[in-house]
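re: that complex we talked abt at group meeting.

here r the seqs, copy pasted straight from the sheet so there may be weird spacing, ignore it
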Amino acid sequence: MTDFTATRALFHLPEGVIYLDGNSLGPLPRSASTRMAQVLERQWGDRLIRAWNDCDWMTLPARVGDRIARLIGAPAGSVTTGDTLSVKLFQALAAALALRPDRRVVLSDTGNFPSDLYIADGLLGALGRGLSLKVVAPEAVADAIDDSVAVVMLTEVDYRSGRLHDMRALTWRAHAAGALAIWDLAHSAGAIAVDVTAADADFAVGCTYKYLNGGPGAPAFIHVAPRHADVVQPILSGWLGHDAPFAFERAYRPAAGVERMRVGTPPILALAVLDAALDAWNDVDMAALRAASIRLSERFRAEVEAHCPMLTLASPRDPHARGSQLSFAHPQAYAIMQALIARGVIGDVRAPDILRFGFTPLYLTEDEVVRAATILAEVLATDAWDRPAYHRRAPVT
Amino acid sequence: MTDFTATRALFHLPEGVIYLDGNSLGPLPRSASTRMAQVLERQWGDRLIRAWNDCDWMTLPARVGDRIARLIGAPAGSVTTGDTLSVKLFQALAAALALRPDRRVVLSDTGNFPSDLYIADGLLGALGRGLSLKVVAPEAVADAIDDSVAVVMLTEVDYRSGRLHDMRALTWRAHAAGALAIWDLAHSAGAIAVDVTAADADFAVGCTYKYLNGGPGAPAFIHVAPRHADVVQPILSGWLGHDAPFAFERAYRPAAGVERMRVGTPPILALAVLDAALDAWNDVDMAALRAASIRLSERFRAEVEAHCPMLTLASPRDPHARGSQLSFAHPQAYAIMQALIARGVIGDVRAPDILRFGFTPLYLTEDEVVRAATILAEVLATDAWDRPAYHRRAPVT
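got the structure back, here u go
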């Protein structure tokens, strides 16, 4: 039984703010400060280098990985954490390509996060060998999977529209064509009920600063299907992915399983905060979370559509066809969002014209989403957004 | 004028400990806790997503990079921070190889940190093209640089012996042969007076959790010589190395200069702690630091050699030929170090038989190194190390 009143109490939520941007950066878990003080003062401060053993720092990436594994339907021991999502995706893609040496195409879609496509460009450009990245429309992916495709590389939830791919069907299709599937779960982990095992995904990667509330730039995760984990050769063959890092052998011998996807020294401070943030998920049933998320987003959609006729829904209308966000298009999206933020309702924008709102049942109530829609309607009805200050672009959107 | 009494007061140094392992993990700067609390509560907690703009998070990697630049003789704007050293080295090596497409050999030495060699193995294995890693003895590097060599990839200070390469001479030799030079400054930055500009290094990378006291797994840094910075094509082409990350363009266009070596979302919490740690360096003159470091290590060497005849010096005797550490060999190095640590003197060991001690004038006094040597002599003279508990290996050495 998931008690969202209890989980809400675990977060620091500033007075006067309705936070609809947990899909971009989750809020501060109240336990983070205590945990960080403990790691700083009692572990690093008092134990110094000894903390690597005394405080089990070296196993922290795997322990945090196991907690994330549960949220994405992965078996224990199949997820490790560290680096950034871009780096973890690079590792997954290189590993997948090496498992399909006779094929030349990486297939992705225009709904993928640009960084994922950039990472593929960078890797394929360096590898040469006639490899190419084919980017099709999201709805054209299934039909584009043929026996030239080495890897289907997709983000499950579109960062702009929230449109949800059918992970299971597309992975099945990839496998039927002899290809592998890599899933980016950036907008899935902690947002919807993910089951990488049922979907038979080959690799999954994700970030933890959105729905998992790990903090700005929190470590990423990577899942490697157990059938591949002892086979893949890491391109980023760093010492902590070595079977015996402290033997300082000349030759790289990959560690067993997903541990070989570790690279450098783990970011202990950030991992500790992420570990604390994951406490909020201990009693969360993902099906209950998804149901609550749909209730919130459907209520918001209904209110906005009733009171904001000048906005166009830019997400699938069917809540089961989208992740835990809603997008609306308006030519003045940027200024509207600034006006909204000035009134305490925080969402974000995505170029060129998308207002984006995330729904996070762990700490967001239905009452809040109704109030947020009311304030949005007021901003729009009074043209309150049309002030010079609201048009002035900040570096980060 | 560097006042080391003042810098010592900036660190949390546990009672009863003499810390000679700052070359592995520097101690906690007292300001870290305050800074972290501020970032957690006032920035992330109160400002949420707005902190990316309000609190200048997006420029933090460059601002921290500039502070490190000063310590390694690099111009402002030529260093960025993030990821781990292994990842930064991977980027540097891929970039350097692409600048020398007609050459096939990466030259390194047996004194390099194994992870650096592993990273080269992983990259070269993936790239194919007949590329190979040639590993020679440290003293054979200069003569091995010929016109087959694309990149000379070295760590300036040997992690085991402390032996110091002549960065300037070897870089000159590399350039004379048409090769590029990548320097790993893991045991140099904050340890000795580094001048990558005078040495004309093409790339330099390093970690910040040793002499720079950034904390366990703190972000790494990379310097790209300005002559290359707008030319290199990043293999890890993540969105934050894009010229306009928030335009979400389909095509990757690298940012100007070293900013293109950024990859994913920056690790704000860890960078903030590193930034706080770098305050200790504000008034430090690197020549004065080096002189103090030599005084400390020479005093320790003299004491140990006078009172511990069973130990063999495993570092260059000439202090100008080594970094800021001293190593001694003994077949029972592991057990001896455990006995020493049990008595409050913390160093570390490196397989198979090296006792390793780091000298860090920011917070270490001559009195302490004399006491440490006395305790070491006692442990050895009484065979106090020969207990079962001291032979039991911990996972991390």
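couple things i noticed - Chain B has a mean pLDDT of 97. Chain B has two domains: 4-28+285-391, 56-281.
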